[in-house]
Design brief:
The structure holds two protein chains of two kinds. Helices cover 36% and strands 0% of the residues of chain A. Chain A has one helix and no strands. The model of chain A has no long low-confidence stretch (mean pLDDT 86). By secondary structure, chain B is of the alpha/beta class. Chain B has a domain of 123 residues. Chain B has ten helices and eight strands. In chain B, the strands form two sheets. In chain B, strands 2-1-3-4-8 form a five-stranded mixed beta sheet. In chain B, strands 5-6-7 form a three-stranded antiparallel beta sheet, with no helix packed on it. In chain B, helix 8 packs parallel to helix 10. Chain B is globular and about 60 Å long. The chains are: A mainly alpha, B alpha/beta.
């Protein structure tokens, strides 16, 4: 639907796999940070009501 | 009157007078040309309302949801696949139904015809291969193949997949159809290009939900767009909300959509939202070897686990 590849990740981590969680979370963070801030699916904030 | 119409009326009259069904769901002439409407016949002497021609595009499976009585339903190829889906999803029981199958040669796209005519169309008639539209001071004849709905021109299941009665001889299925050329074109775009493409595609949407209402799959008592607690999606014209509606609706139809074209046909602004459901149809076919509504025995893709299901995308 036009979202950059690399912004969406899937993983299956059991509650017992703490090290895998750390690894995946780090990788996801790095991958997304490399892409920069998201520009899609962002709603502009509502205008201030006077 | 086409011979199919005559056979349909005969079958409906027989079923109603023998008490085999309490109601027959079919089509009757609409109030304006090329807009046939659903028709619920309860008495044998009312079967004269039923018609069949190239303007019966509405998917009648939509009217079966949670019905309790015995029903005779007129079903072309795609309708019959949605009847199967309804039975699999427990929205109707097979024993309640007498499926009156109609082998289908495709439905006409009223927009294509209207665009090729210089004024308002007042009368439409047809032969086996041609459709003639007449209005004030003009008469145009079209080859039926040139004015088919897009989904009908790509259809590979024209014959009903289940039926108890048959109104006409089975037709030859189209061979060698490339169903997914348009989906592949979108898949090949860069993410930026694709984002822009969908932006333009959905820009005219007025959020009337006609696509949802025409769809036999959209039978939820409360649709996610109508929920207000919590409110999943905004009600307005915000492009993000419009996008959320169309993408989510498509996902709700994953592995269920038969590409009957009811959504696109119902759209007042002519958005081709079938592109989304077709992408999911293509994925289901390629990843799970699944086509919706072909058999009462097979379980749908989303309802079945296989150890060799593709899962390369999960780390």
């Amino acid at each position: 639907m036009g979202i950059e590849p690399g912004r969406l990740h899937f993983s299956w981590i059991s509650s017992a796999e703490s090290t895998k969680f750390v690894t995946v979370a780090t990788q996801v963070t790095e991958a997304v940070r490399a892409l920069g801030p998201n520009t899609r699916f962002i709603q502009p904030p509502l205008a201030e009501v006077a | 009157m086409t011979s199919t119409t005559a056979i349909l009326r005969e079958i409906a009259a027989r079923l109603l007078s023998s008490g085999a069904v309490e109601m027959v769901i079919g089509f009757r002439q609409g109030t304006i040309p090329m807009m046939n409407e659903p028709c619920f016949v309860r008495k044998p002497d009312e079967v004269g309302h039923l018609v069949w021609d190239s303007h019966c595009g509405i998917n009648l499976a939509n009217y079966l949801t949670d019905r309790k009585e015995k029903i005779g339903i007129v079903a072309k190829g795609c309708d019959s696949r949605n009847v199967v889906t309804h039975i699999l999803e427990n929205k109707i029981r097979r024993e309640q139904l007498v499926v009156i199958g109609v082998p289908c040669r495709g439905m006409a796209d009223k927009r294509k015809i209207a665009m090729k005519c210089p004024g308002e169309i007042l009368r439409v008639s047809e032969t086996a291969t041609a459709i003639t539209a007449e209005g004030e001071g003009f008469s145009r004849t079209f080859e039926k193949a040139d004015v088919l709905q897009h989904n009908c021109s790509l259809c590979i299941h024209r014959n009903p997949v289940i039926y108890d009665e048959l109104a006409g001889d089975l037709v030859e299925e189209q061979q060698g159809v490339d169903r997914y050329a348009d989906v592949r074109a979108v898949e090949e775009m860069t993410p930026e290009r694709r984002w822009k493409y969908f932006e333009d595609l959905l820009a005219p949407c007025i959020r009337c939900y006609a696509c949802r209402n025409a769809c036999p799959l959209c039978y939820c008592p409360t649709c996610f767009v109508d929920e207000s607690r919590p409110q999943w999606v905004g009600k307005g014209q915000d492009p993000i909300d419009v996008r959320t509606f169309h993408f989510l609706r498509a996902y709700h139809c994953a592995g269920r959509c038969t590409d009957c074209g009811a959504c696109e046909r119902a759209c007042p602004v002519g958005i081709n939202m079938r592109l989304f459901t077709k992408k999911l149809e293509k994925d289901c076919r390629e990843l799970f070897d699944w086509e919706a509504g072909l058999s009462l025995e097979a379980r749908p893709a989303l309802d079945q686990y296989r150890p060799n299901d593709p899962n390369d995308f999960i780390r």
